Amino acid sequence: MRIDKFLSECKIATRSETGKAVRRGEVLLDGVPVKRADTPVDPEKNTVTYCGEVVRYRRNTYVLLNKPDGYVSATEDKKDKTVLDLLPEEVTKFDVFPCGRLDKNTLGLMLITDNGPLAHTLLSPKRHVEKVYRFECARKPSEADLCMLQNGVDIGGYVTKPCTVKMIDDTSGEITLSEGKYHQIKLMFNAVDNRIHYLERIRFAFLTLDGLQRGEWRYLNNDEIKKLEGLVK
Prior knowledge:
Blueprint: H1 3-9, H2 15-23, E1 27-29, E2 32-33, E3 48-50, E4 53-55, E5 62-67, H3 89-92, E6 97-98, E7 107-113, H4 116-123, E8 131-137, H5 143-151, E9 164-167, E10 172-177, H6 184-191, E11 196-204, E12 207-208, E13 217-219, H7 222-230
Parallel strand pairs: 7-11
Antiparallel strand pairs: 1-2, 1-3, 3-4, 5-7, 5-13, 6-7, 8-10, 8-11, 9-10, 11-12
Helix pairs in contact: 1-2
């Protein structure tokens, strides 16, 4: 890959801007100023520095976010703040979007990426990618309620797939799904005459919040990216 293409794909500089920076001696390859904007670079092996800043190359962007209350899972919204408002421009410049959605008042783990095909595949019910949520409900579910929830309930013309519900105490627990219909968990509990008061996603596939405080984010590391991309092969 040419170094001007590399910097363009990283959204650091246009090719013409790279050419000007090269002439000023501000583009370094492994610490040495390059002479030409078409100098080849191997993103896996070489270190590129632009105007004093080391440039990290990512074929795709993957961010883990701990979503707070009150943010909508969208790229833009005319009324409310979106989860992208929690991310800096160094992330959003890559046209990232939420992989799936959490309701405005649902908290927890969100994967943000610019890899459309991967996101689509991860969300497909055929892939059976697990999503785990911690919940609090209005009243203690009976054994019959739990059996219904785990075997599938009608949430308005759609019968949910089997899931796992593990109670922690009388009114709180964890539910594991392999699908994600709109308001699904809230509608499932409504179907057994109950109501969700609190909902937080704590795991998506193998990803967990891993110490992230509410509103914080981090890039996935290389091992996590390889494992994530391996789920869709």
